[in-house]
Amino acid sequence: MKPRLLLGLCTVVAMLALPAVAQADPFVGPPVCATAGTALFGSHGSLVVWGDAYVPKGKTLDVRGSLWIKPGACLDAFTLGTVHVGRSIFVDRGAILALGCTPSSIGPVPPCGTTTTNDTVGYNIIADHALTMYLDGNWIGRNVVSIGGGPGLYGDYTNFPIKDNTIGGNLIVRGWKGAWAGAIRNDVGGNLRWSRNMSVANPDSNEVQTNTIGGDLFCFHNSPAAQVNAADGGLPNVVGGDRFGQCAGL
Fold this sequence. Notes:
Layout: E1 5-7, E2 10-14, E3 38-39, E4 42-44, E5 46-50, E6 52-54, E7 60-63, E8 67-69, E9 74-77, E10 82-85, E11 89-91, E12 96-99, E13 120-121, E14 125-128, E15 132-136, E16 139-140, E17 144-147, E18 159-163, E19 166-167, E20 171-174, E21 180-184, E22 187-188, E23 192-195, E24 207-209, E25 212-213, E26 217-220, E27 238-239, E28 243-245
């Protein structure tokens, strides 16, 4: 493990790979990062993560500026810790961001039990060909934008859940390819755009359901087509504007 280096207001976290497979915190829950990595908490101006890191239970990570997760790195905040980012989070190619936890997070036994965490991002979450993101129960002041990414249609079985978030601006997910992706029970102040997301591993992928959307809902060229899965408890979306494409009836 390399020491943390303080560079002005920017903290860089660099880790060597460890042999053990991590679990969140690492408490009982699905593995997120490939290794246990470094426990990450405390106050930072801005923060750059290279390698694997996690936010421990009961600890707070407070980033006053922006947070960068560099190519292939992983931040596991799918824990009972707390994360506050004053500006934006940027997730680079092949990287993983797991942020927030609710009783409805992936299971079968949610790692947070009956607790909903209180993670916040002041501005945006921007993902450029990220491997995946787990966004559960967060408050995001502006936009969530994910372009490309995923393990590919025949890669590892990887999910991309966006659930129970409050998003002040737009939610845009385009071109992700993996096992399952969905937007469920989010409160979106702007538009929700879900396009060109593909899966061959799970016919229930591209669930866009039970969201409250202030603007328009756009769904184009997804495979399988964007859907409401009533068997999974899904309900039609409440949309303040218009509905287009595959989501015209959702």
